[in-house]
Amino acid sequence: MRNPRALWRDLGAKRFFGVQVLFLGTLSQFALAPLLWSFWLVPLGMPHPLASVVPGKALLALGVVFFAAELLNIGLSMLAVSRAGKRGLLGWVPTLHLYYPLAVAATYKGLLELFWKPFYWDKTAHGAFVPHGPERSG
Q: Could you tell me if 54 and 62 are in contact, meaning their C-beta atoms sit under 8 angstroms apart?
């Protein structure tokens, strides 16, 4: 997306918009995950933080939609693993719930850096880097 016109030329309109939907869908999934998780407070006997702002039926509807989204997410993950011929990984699908909090933290970190340090690139170090050639012995 550094050069949207070039991406448009390379992908065409349909694929360009597909990339945008995939990107925004992924970003919004992780950015809104804490709201989804807040609905687990209700079965634990605690009031939902939005209960005083959102009418009861609307809050219930949100809870049902978010729970359905959770089930859909698990189902789609299981379908993807099965269709890829990796049925042995089906048992690992529930561990995605351990991955999501890490992805949420990374999303918020990235969003904060986007606003406070827009030109900062938080690169991951891969291997040893020797800036002036190999070390000489002796």
A: yes
Q: CB–CB of 36/70 below 8 Å?
A: yes
Task: Give the position of tokens 């890490």.
Answer: 102
For the stretch 69-78, contacts whose Cβ atoms lie closer than 8 Å and that sit 24 or more positions apart, written own/partner, are: 69/36, 70/36
Is the per-residue pLDDT at 128 higher than 70? no
pLDDT, one tens digit per residue, over 24-50 is 998 998 998 898 888 888 878 888 888
Task: Work out the pLDDT band at 75, boundaries 50, 70, 90.
Answer: very high
Domain range summary for the chain, segments of one domain joined by +: 1-26, 32-116
Of the candidates 53, 48, 55, the one whose C-alpha atom is nearest the C-alpha of residue 34 is: 48
Write out the two tokens for 19: 């990339």
Q: How distant is the alpha carbon of residue 9 from its chain centre?
A: 27
Q: Which residue has the higher pLDDT, 135 or 68?
A: 68
